[in-house]
Design brief:
alpha+beta; five-stranded mixed sheet; 608 residues; single chain; elongated
């Protein structure tokens, strides 16, 4: 355990900030453009704390011929800069004005630095004086750079006629709602203490959501293998170590997200990974039924067991299981997880973000610790009872395998697999649990119900249904999803430019837009698409919307940039925009989305 303790200690030392990671240039220096009272153009930069902008490096030229334009800037603060010598700089904000912009596009160049950090290369943005649209060399840039929010001192601008919101021939930029985020909101209410206290509670509330479900059979299988050594105390120790590994992995994910800008939990996911995990659970299940014995090579077993005494190998294995569970099991994002990851990425406060995620992991594991401790006192130590327990856990592993593979299976095959599992379990329970045995009547009843529902699923699958919760809907005149109405049609998108073009199309039709982030490996997304989106009330609520789907099953540069621009940590996420491309505040949905929350968000978007 000494090496394990050293590893965990290094993890928390690593999360301590050794200097803030530099922000993306468009977040360090947020450009806003608006029409000045005299008819000219005003360029304003909001400069992030710890950054500054050079006055003499702010220049304006015509974009076509490169002729200099008379740009006026205010006085700055003198600084003995190591790169440029004595120069004037701006902190917090800067402003430049152009009195006679004309009609030709303007190339605006500026440069800044991070205090005691990096200096950015000169940045050039092209502004259309007629529409105030801001573009970069590759096209439209981030939404923060292309929409103007009137300054508090600007009392002459008329929002109804402000040219920054006029329709243009190019795709309009989008504007995100001003949301301080989960952690900043908690910080404002109660400081760091409230953040550290709230995230374990969030984890506890998420402990029984679908993406956390695989942890229970994993831990149950580990306990079942303990045999005679299993006691309440040992169950508590093993599950606590499992949860410690889980929470440490969440903290590491947060720290890595802060430095890489990516949710590594997403990077590790793919349809291949989901398929491999499903196959692994099936292999474990068959070993529980006694078809073969899974055992590590003797050399590995001896290495794991060497050291601190009996059972040390099991303890190490529990930590490794917990750590890997956070990385590869339950990848679907939740609101608290997304809030922490985005906070780390935007502020580089790795310490607080990682601590919040550590607390989230601890909260998710509390029911597991209770389950394992009670199970350590209830489960038998050896004998025929132990074989029965292992076989019951084997059915649990098979259920987990089907659940994880469901998004990858052809339509209808999932129902056949669930039917086979239920019929198999019902037959097993009916044969191995006589009526005279303790609880025999209850078990026999459950076995008959399993057999009956398995038969119903078989009939539904043969008739073309694909919803385990509504297997006979096809006989009521509905489709496989349980409704005769046509399915919702989503337009695919995979990049910022493509989504902006779709917003332009919706704006021309005066329609709001909803974008849905999903992935093949996202089990929660599969549940949403099977049981939520086909519901009649959801279809009614989303009528009139332009529906866009961003499939991030395969991570690439284009969809990674789109997620960064929209501040999306991972699927499932739904974002609503009004007809002008502005996000509806309070309507964003992250994580476990149901019919009630989706219809409420759609109604809120329509009201705006």
């Amino acid at each position: 355990m000494r090496r394990l303790a050293s590893l965990l200690l290094c993890l928390f030392v690593w999360t301590l900030p050794a200097g803030a990671a530099p922000l993306p240039v468009d977040e360090a220096f947020t450009l806003q453009v608006h029409e000045a009272p005299d008819g000219g153009l005003a360029f304003q930069w909001k400069i992030a704390p710890g950054y500054y902008l050079y006055r003499e490096h702010i220049e304006a030229k015509t974009a076509d011929g490169g002729a200099p334009l008379p740009l006026e800037t205010g006085s700055g603060i003198a600084k003995d800069d190591p790169n440029f010598g004595t120069t004037e700089i701006y902190y917090a904000s800067a402003e430049a004005t152009l009195s006679a912009p004309g009609d030709a596009p303007i190339a605006l160049t500026y440069q800044g630095c991070q205090e005691d950090g990096i200096c950015y290369r000169p940045e050039t943005r092209v502004i259309d004086p007629l529409t105030l649209a801001v573009t970069a060399q590759g096209g439209l840039v981030a939404p923060k750079l292309s929409l103007w929010t009137p300054a508090p001192t600007d009392t002459t601008a008329d929002p109804a006629t402000d040219r920054a919101t006029e329709t243009t021939g190019a795709a309009p930029a989008f504007e995100l709602a001003e949301d301080p985020g989960l952690i900043p909101s908690l910080m404002a209410r109660g400081g760091v203490i409230l953040v550290l206290a709230a995230f374990p509670l969030f984890g506890l509330l998420l402990a029984f959501t679908p993406c956390v479900f695989p942890m229970y059979p994993i831990m149950a299988g580990a306990l079942a293998r303990e045999g005679e050594r299993l006691t309440p105390r040992r169950g508590f120790v093993l599950s606590s170590l499992y949860v410690l590994g889980l929470a440490s992995a969440f903290a590491l994910l947060g720290a890595a997200a802060g430095w890489s800008g990516q949710n590594l939990q997403m990077v590790l996911q793919s349809p291949w990974m989901a398929g491999v995990l499903a196959l692994l659970f099936a292999v474990l299940a068959l070993s529980m039924f006694g078809l073969y014995e899974l055992q590590l090579p003797a050399r590995w077993t001896n290495a794991l067991s060497r050291g601190t005494g009996q059972g040390a190998g099991s303890k190490r294995a529990a930590v490794v299981l917990g750590f890997s569970s956070a990385l590869i099991v339950g990848p679907c994002v939740t609101a608290p997880l997304a809030g922490a990851l985005l906070y780390i990425a935007q502020t580089a406060d790795v310490t607080l973000g990682a601590a919040a995620l550590f607390g989230l992991g601890i909260g998710k594991g509390i029911p597991l610790i209770v389950f394992s401790t009670l199970g350590g006192g209830v489960l038998p130590r050896a004998g025929a009872w132990m074989d029965t327990v292992k076989q019951v856990f084997g059915f649990g592993f098979l259920a987990t395998a089907i659940w994880m593979a469901a998004p990858l299976l052809p339509a209808g095959l999932e129902l056949f697999l669930w039917a086979a599992l239920l019929i198999g379990f019902g037959t097993y329970a009916f044969v191995h649990w006589p009526v005279e045995r303790s609880g025999g009547v209850v078990v026999r009843t459950a076995s008959l119900l399993a057999l009956l529902y398995g038969a119903v699923l078989t009939v539904g699958a043969a008739a073309g249904s694909n919803d385990p919760l509504k297997p006979l809907a096809v006989f009521a005149g509905g489709s496989a999803a349980g409704t005769s109405a046509p399915p919702l049609v989503f337009a695919p998108t995979g990049s910022t430019e493509a989504f902006q073009a779709q917003l332009a199309s919706a704006r021309g039709q005066d329609r709001p837009t909803m974008i849905y982030f999903t992935a093949d490996w996202c089990v929660t997304c599969y549940t949403i698409e099977r049981s939520v989106l086909p519901a009649p009330d959801v279809k009614q609520a989303l009528s009139g919307f332009q529906l866009v789907k961003a499939d991030v099953s395969d991570i690439d540069a284009a969809n990674t940039e789109l997620m960064a621009q929209l501040k999306v940590a991972g699927p499932p996420t739904m974002i609503f925009f009004d007809e002008g491309g502005k996000e509806i505040a309070g309507a964003r949905l992250v994580g476990d989305i149901n019919r009630q929350t989706l219809t409420a968000a759609a109604d809120l978007a329509k009201e705006r």
